[in-house]
Amino acid sequence: MICNRAALAASDAHEIALDCIEAAVDAAAPAAATKSAVGRDSQTLTIGGTTYDLDEYSEVVVVGGGKAAGGVTRALESILGDTLSGGHVVVTQAIDTETVRSSVGDHPLPSDRNVAATTKMLKKVGEADEDTLVLFVLTGGASALLSAPAGDLTLDDLQTTTDRLLSGGVPIAEINAVRKHLSDLKGGQIARLAAPATVDGVLISDVVGNDLSTIGSGPSVPDETTYGDALDVFERYDLTPPPAVHDHLEAGQDGRLSETPFPDDSVFDRVTNHLIGDNATALDAAAAVARETGYEPLVLTSRLRGEAREVAKPLVAIAEEATATGTPVEPPAVLLAGGESTVTVTEKRGQGGPNQEFVLSGALAHDGDAVIAAVDTDGEDGSSDAAGAIATANIIDDRKRARDALLANDAGSYLSEIGATVETGPTGTNVNDVVVLVIPDPSE
Predict the structure, then answer these.
(1) Any bridge partners for residue 376, and if so which?
(2) Domain 5-26+282-439: what homologous superfamily?
(3) Domain map of the chain by residue range?
(4) What are all long-range contacts of 390-393, with beta carbons under 8 Å and residues at least 24 apart?
(5) Does domain 29-279 bear CATH number 3.40.50.10180?
(6) Residues 328 and 318: beta-carbon distance below 8 Å
(7) Which residues in the chain land under pLDDT 70?
(8) What is the bridge-based pairing of β-strands 388-391 and 421-422?
(9) Which of 126, 174, 272, 290 counts the highest number of beta carbons within 10 A?
(10) pTM value?
């Protein structure tokens, strides 16, 4: 999985960190997650705790999108076989499917082909009737891939808005509050379009806390945010939306546009959503690998968030405390964390992303010999092709240059130069970031 693993495996501790990363990504693989949550016994389909009598439906279709949607779709095809009528999913990498059509889109910014692909997917949803079972697949990356500009908004309006929110360090839940109100499908609107069909959302989470309404901006989930909330995001982070976006949100706030459907809306009467994989799934697998190697694992959190270069510092401090006092865990040990940290771009955008900034900041701050690793489980960290990075404090050969790179949002360039980036390529899954700190036995 890690293409440059041989070059990165500088010590036993590095090997353990890399093993943990690979186990975490493997555990979050969409096919494995789907087959653990979805089963079929004759004509009874079970998803989570919900059962469906397939004889009651004239059609069963799969629609949706996201970075892991291809793997989920292939698994559903293998389970449903000839019962599956068709469908359409939007993905980032071409997939080989038998019944469901797929279109390749772009991420992290919406594009013309995203809009075209989403239009085809929505057409399929709109054809559903009360005798249709719609399996709506949603995974990380869907907010960009499933693009349907609302009203008179243009693709350029969506691209500019998304870029400003991402560059402004805005947390994903608040970004999605905006996205929901600039779209014809997000914020529960796929449920509105599909009604009166039966809809089952099959979701893999890439958001901290697994709020279903935030995953992919919640197309099949009730929305409790409003146009006013979306406007407040720009004010809170001192960002300026494009004029057309401001006018659209203001029109909604003034009641001139319909709100996204709230929890009590009847469009959700025949909608059920199931979470089949998340960051905790990945961390549990990494912990199991650490334990097998004789290291004591400690999962600190699956809700890591905040500015990447800042959240790294308390985590390396915990590693130092463990080395010095055996608290909160006795070395040799592995500290694990997951979630989604952010980067506020203060200079011209360089190379890298939050995981690379985390590792470089952690290595600069660390007073010890822990191995610090962090990756995005989708294999693409921020604006680079690297999944993340792995480093120790002593690998930093020029601290001033390293600090300058961090301040310039160019951690990726420096880490690449010293051979510390982790290369996986697209993994086909996405359950946010995984952080691994391997603390060697001080006596060795």
Answers:
(1) 433
(2) MOFRL domain (3.40.1480.10)
(3) 5-26+282-439, 29-279
(4) 390/8, 390/14, 390/17, 390/18, 390/359, 390/420, 390/422, 391/359, 391/360, 391/362, 391/363, 391/415, 391/418, 391/420, 392/363, 392/366, 393/363, 393/364, 393/366, 393/367, 393/368, 393/369
(5) yes
(6) yes
(7) 347-349
(8) antiparallel
(9) 290
(10) 0.86
